[in-house]
Design goal:
three-stranded mixed sheet; iron-sulfur; Radical SAM protein; catalytic activity; seven-stranded mixed sheet; metal-binding; 363 residues; alpha/beta; 12% strand; iron; globular
Length: 363
């Protein structure tokens, strides 16, 4: 629900200060002036920084199948719902609506932890009908967000995949991935793993408001270097590209990725599905009022005149002249730096299903 108190100008360390109502709510709450100046008094109060809370959940299934033609993997797993990184543009924010929570502040402060994720993954991999395909970790929320340091759910997933010799990919914007090099490196050397590190901007000041609790840009590039030096195929994901915000950095981002040892570059343009749209536009007006209209005009150019168009053919890269210019700049920078836009297919041939019910094999 939307709070009665007026939203603060900003909250340090959070992507948004508001608990925007989700699209399934039947009622909305708003502030009401009672004639005693209550709203003015509340506006003058310094807001307390909201703490992060973890909601434990035991789930029945953890593997999500994907048949979208614009996503390069068929299976994914997300040990968490919600993400403390607080990226204002995150396309996964609307998923909190299904939990009757706000895609705004709740998404980054109320984190759902699937505490039995490893147990359920092992059960699903053991099914006779299961056919191995690389599993992506972190497609919706970052598996290495801050709560992972304590809960270690992502590591438990990697431990299951390691025992089964199952291929996997990781997408993250956290240096926490370095903790699990003991599992990632052997898998990578066997052709069963690669990692993509998202680097949205090299501007640390911009990143403090765009992705407030994610690792600093320099630290992410250091992680790229660590992974590359260890022999792990690593790419850099420039996502999302936001016109007139981080879009001017495209060439510098590709060059920085190459210098850090990345082998491939991937990108997407800004997407504003459901509640992400008003949240992002509020953020834009708050932090970049001088260019907000210009940014949104270009975003609409990318999505066929709409704030967002959920078209499998164009939602990731956009369409039209502006999208073509972005693609051209990416391709030329990639060629100039000797990188690639593609990654090698992972090996599924060594997969060994877990033993069902803990029964050992006779052979």
């Amino acid at each position: 629900m939307v709070s009665d108190r007026p939203p603060p100008a900003a909250l340090k360390g959070r992507g948004t200060p508001v608990r925007i109502a989700h699209r399934f709510e039947k009622a909305e709450r708003d502030g009401f002036d009672d004639g005693w100046g209550t709203l003015d008094q509340l506006a003058d109060l310094a807001p307390l920084p909201p703490a992060t809370s973890v909601i434990e959940e035991r789930v029945k299934s953890v593997l999500t199948a994907n048949d979208s033609p614009d996503i390069p993997f068929e299976l994914s797993i997300n040990p968490y719902r919600g993400c403390e990184h607080g990226c204002i543009y995150c396309y996964a924010r609307p998923t909190h609506s299904y939990l009757n929570l706000s895609p705004g502040l709740d998404f980054e402060t109320k984190i759902v932890a699937k505490v039995n994720v490893a147990e359920r993954l092992e059960a699903e991999l053991a099914r006779p009908s299961y056919r191995p395909s690389p599993i992506n970790i972190g497609s919706a929320t970052d598996g290495y967000q801050p709560v992972e340091r304590k809960l270690r759910l992502t590591r438990s997933v990697l431990e299951v995949l390691t025992r089964c010799a199952h291929p996997f990919t990781i997408i993250s914007k956290s240096s926490g991935v370095e903790r699990d090099l003991d599992l990632i490196v052997p898998a990578a050397h066997a052709g069963r793993a690669w990692v993509s590190i998202s680097v949205t901007s090299l501007d640390a000041q911009l990143m403090r408001i765009l992705e407030p609790r994610a690792a600093a840009p320099a630290r992410r590039l250091q992680t790229v270097k660590v992974l590359s030096s260890a022999g792990v195929p690593v790419g850099v994901n420039i996502a999302p590209i936001i016109p007139f915000v981080n879009e001017p950095e495209i060439e510098r981002l590709v060059e920085a990725a190459a210098e850090a040892g990345a082998g491939s570059i991937h990108y997407t343009v800004l997407r504003l599905p459901w509640e992400v749209n008003p949240l992002f536009q509020q953020w834009l007006a708050q932090h970049f009022p001088d260019r907000a209209e210009r940014v949104m005009a270009r975003v609409r150019d990318l999505h066929g005149g709409q704030d967002y168009k959920a078209d499998f053919k164009a939602r990731m890269k956009g369409s039209g002249l502006w999208a073509g210019l972005i693609a051209q700049r990416i391709d030329k920078a990639v060629q100039r730096c000797g990188l690639t836009r593609h990654v090698k297919a992972l090996d599924v041939s060594a997969f060994r299903p877990p033993q069902r019910g803990g029964q050992g094999s006779l052979f």
